[in-house]
DNA sequence: AGAATAGCAGATTTCGAAATTCGGAGAAGG
DNA sequence: CCTTCTCCGAATTTCGAAATCTGCTATTCT
């Protein structure tokens, strides 16, 4: 009967979709974060209507929601486009992720009970499970790894006791993930990333929040630098491919 | 020609409304923050359609946007309601406001140029201008004071250099303002509040960020405690008025 | 009488089409 | 030849009605 307070904290795909709009939000969000919809691409509701098989309203409603989350920009009465990626924002997101997620982890370690530990352990185990997948470049596999990865992090932060903090982390993680998936070509997961996860969980379960937060900080900045390296490489070097963000997004006028 | 990066940072009422939906968002947000739509109240699109004189779509799109901002909750297929206020959230918002706005102010003082100073001074001057209004309980006057107040704070934070930080501050301020306006019965502005504004601006212009941030911190926690005091008084004491959230909200059916 | 089910009225969600708006192509004028 | 204005097609926004869903009420069965 009593409502949860604080902003709704919901990650990625929820099991039950009561509403067509909800389903569309998740699907669209997934397509943007994963990079299937490219940075800066125009989003034509007409196209999505066909693609997702829903009417105008759910798509439009989803678009407005994602605009508030920073994944999409509403452009006057000129429709919507996928938010542009840029290096400054990556830096900013990485920095705030490190700060806020660090705080969330610290508080969770202080507040967390055995159940919290169990959830985190379970989440890391599930993450290990998809780790072994050979081919993470395939959409399906990458989606799955990222989902488990998010779940692990949020299992860690779950007991921070602050819905707003969780919401902020969620927004940052979501937007940050776009950079990894847009630029980092990971065939298989870097071993050091995996080790960091283990180390964070270990310190967390031992209630050593100083150590845990310190590793998490390194983990996040590490990921940020990796993405940044690729991003620079993509933007700077060969002016030939300068027009990355290839037009191939909108399928309107080929040629 | 080039897009601003980072999430869109827009406060309250924007000058130009290109789209009916945009106008509806601002209007609805105003009605929620000001308390004209009460905490927990059901939001019937049918009612708003009549009240605002627009069709289903703009209202629905606005509702989804506000849901992402935390002012409204979307409830399965059971429609929307104004987000509930509660004491825990007030505490949380106050704490995060102090932290994040403090950081925003610190960075702005470090980055800010003469123009930034000028804007802040001008904003405070405009705030002083409405300060003299006799009757701040009237919607119009309170709306104006709050708008100027927000503008002053944001003028201060404007040079923090971090769109995400600004966005977070914006969300917190918005949601925090609801508590003041729901519970604090301010006939005239407390003198100490006014003095704090002056002191913050003074320290900011003198580039003393330690002092400025310290006063800001006090300012925010001060406002939080004030709201909390009233909130407790409203919730706890007389079970008689247990059904606070008096009906007088919607001016639709004066029965 | 109590519990469970069917039916109904009120709301909400979803659709498809009408009305606006944008941006460019082409004509007219300098 | 360049600029400005007008008109047209494409896309977006907005509306209003049809389809669904929810929660309550009345009815029926045990």
Automatic annotation (TrEMBL), chains A, B:
<keyword id="KW-0804">Transcription</keyword>
<dbReference type="InterPro" id="IPR011711">
    <property type="entry name" value="GntR_C"/>
</dbReference>
<dbReference type="Pfam" id="PF00392">
    <property type="entry name" value="GntR"/>
</dbReference>
<dbReference type="Pfam" id="PF07729">
    <property type="entry name" value="FCD"/>
</dbReference>
<keyword id="KW-0805">Transcription regulation</keyword>
<feature type="domain" description="HTH gntR-type">
    <location>
        <begin position="18"/>
        <end position="85"/>
    </location>
</feature>
<protein>
    <submittedName>
        <fullName>GntR family transcriptional regulator</fullName>
    </submittedName>
</protein>
<dbReference type="InterPro" id="IPR008920">
    <property type="entry name" value="TF_FadR/GntR_C"/>
</dbReference>
<dbReference type="InterPro" id="IPR036388">
    <property type="entry name" value="WH-like_DNA-bd_sf"/>
</dbReference>
<keyword id="KW-0238">DNA-binding</keyword>
<dbReference type="InterPro" id="IPR036390">
    <property type="entry name" value="WH_DNA-bd_sf"/>
</dbReference>
<dbReference type="InterPro" id="IPR000524">
    <property type="entry name" value="Tscrpt_reg_HTH_GntR"/>
</dbReference>
